[in-house]
Amino acid sequence: MVSPKRWFLTAYENRDMREMQRAAIIGGVGGAAGLLLLVILTFLITVFKHPLYHVSVMGIFIVEFFLLGALLLTKAGKSSLAAHLLLIPMSSYLWLLMFTTAGKLDLTSVTDTIAFVFPLLAMATLITGKRTVLVYAALHIACLIGFTVFSRQTDLLTEKEASEYLMDNLIAIIILTIILFTYIRNTEKAYHSIERSLNESQRNRESIERILVQTNDTAALLASSAEQMAAAAESFADNTQTQAAFIEEISSTVEELAASGENLFGVAQRQASATESVQLQMHSLHEVVTDVSEKTNSALSIRSDLNLSVEKSREEINAVQKVMMSAASKFDDMRDTVGVIDEISEKINLLSLNASIEAARAGDSGRGFAVVAHEIGKLADDTSNNLKSINILFENSHDEINLVSKKLQAFSEVLGKMIGQISAFGSSVDLIVQLTKKESALNEAAGESLKLVEQEASRILDFSAEQKEALNSIAKGISSMNEAMQQIVAGSEEMGATSKNLTSTAQNLMGLSSIFSR
């Protein structure tokens, strides 16, 4: 419910505070004076039996009329005009009453009526300005001089009494005017100071509101960025988990490949042993040349077994080469995947840098978020470094696989040569019966061939050992890469949780901004 005072001052809500106070004084004084005059009017009519046309009754009616007009003007927002409409009739009625009652009433009562001039000047001080107070003071002084001259001419006062009356009241009015003028000047200075302070406060309030609006917008942007970061972190975690599963499959494949390498190493050892056995048999060939038929059958059997072993070795080597090529292709795919993850890490780092810049713009309210954004950037850098290490490991593994593949290819070529040599050896065995005369030459040629075979077998054994070590190294590298991917998965989950906390912090900041901006 609106109070009467607030309803009366509705027109001054957006005006100067001093003007509102003047309007409030006019309303208070005008209302009080109107009620007081109504009480006096009631006494004059009922107690003193004055008729309505009596000068005092008519004067009160006139003053009441002007008071009502002043109140209406004040309500309409014209307080300056209302002030004059309030002061002029009251001042005029005062001096008119003194002039009309002089000689009719007691002289002391008439001359003492001038005492009402001082509250009128005080009221003029409250509801008007400095110049207006000086004007009203001058008018009252003029009326005082006129009343003194009138009293002297009508012999109401002697010359001495008139002079004393004039001087006493003139000095009192002048002193009061000086005091009131000084009061108004000091009051205006105080009002100007208060107004400047209020304007400064208003500017500060507008500045704070702008800051709060910017803070709210920044917090909204921060919340949106944090949500995007959380979504990116979740997607990154899913992709990393997929890559971890893929690495598990690669690890299993490499383990199978290592087992095949073990088998290949065993075949090479058996091949070396078989070569040594053939060499021993060739040494004893000269001693058993007389029993060529029986030994020929045995040699043919050995040739068949050796052909089968060599053919099996070549097939296993071809299978290993295919596995190596497949592993190289998968390593290329893994390297591409690591490149994609590295790009995501760089985007996360850039997003963290943008969040840190926005937090710095937010000032003290964004310090906590700046620390979180820094940690996210640091985690992204660590992720990028780990990915680079993984990529280097992939490159080394890829090179080693290519090297092993080349060596296996060379070994396959050696096996081809060995197969040709064994075929030649078999042909020689077939011709032993017919070429007994050439036994010595063939024995020497076979000895040289066996030396070459022994050398090739030794090389195959060395290649198999190197392949075994390379496959073991690949298995260890894959295991390390698997552990690194697990750490990346854990870091991605932690980054997602941090992004969610960042979103919550941004929403809290938006809530605080909305509270302060109300």
From TrEMBL:
Name the coiled-coil region(s): none
Single GO molecular function: transmembrane signaling receptor activity
Q: Does the keyword Membrane apply?
A: yes
Record-linked Pfam families: MCPsignal
Which InterPro entries does the record associate with it?
Chemotax_Me-accpt_rcpt (IPR004090), MCP_chemotaxis (IPR051310), MCPsignal_dom (IPR004089)
What are the alphabetically sorted keywords of the record? Chemotaxis, Membrane, Transducer, Transmembrane, Transmembrane helix
Q: Which terms in the GO cellular component ontology are assigned?
A: plasma membrane
Q: Name one GO biological process term.
A: signal transduction
Please indicate which superkingdom the organism of origin belongs to. Answer: Bacteria
Q: Does the keyword Transmembrane apply?
A: yes
Q: Where is the Methyl-accepting transducer domain?
A: 218-503
The family database entries (PROSITE patterns) matched by this protein are listed as: CHEMOTAXIS_TRANSDUC_2 (PS50111)
Membrane-crossing ranges are 23-46, 52-74, 81-101, 107-126, 133-153, 165-184
Similarity section = Belongs to the methyl-accepting chemotaxis (MCP) protein family.
**The name this protein goes by in its record:** Methyl-accepting transducer domain-containing protein
- What organism does the record attribute this protein to? Leptonema illini
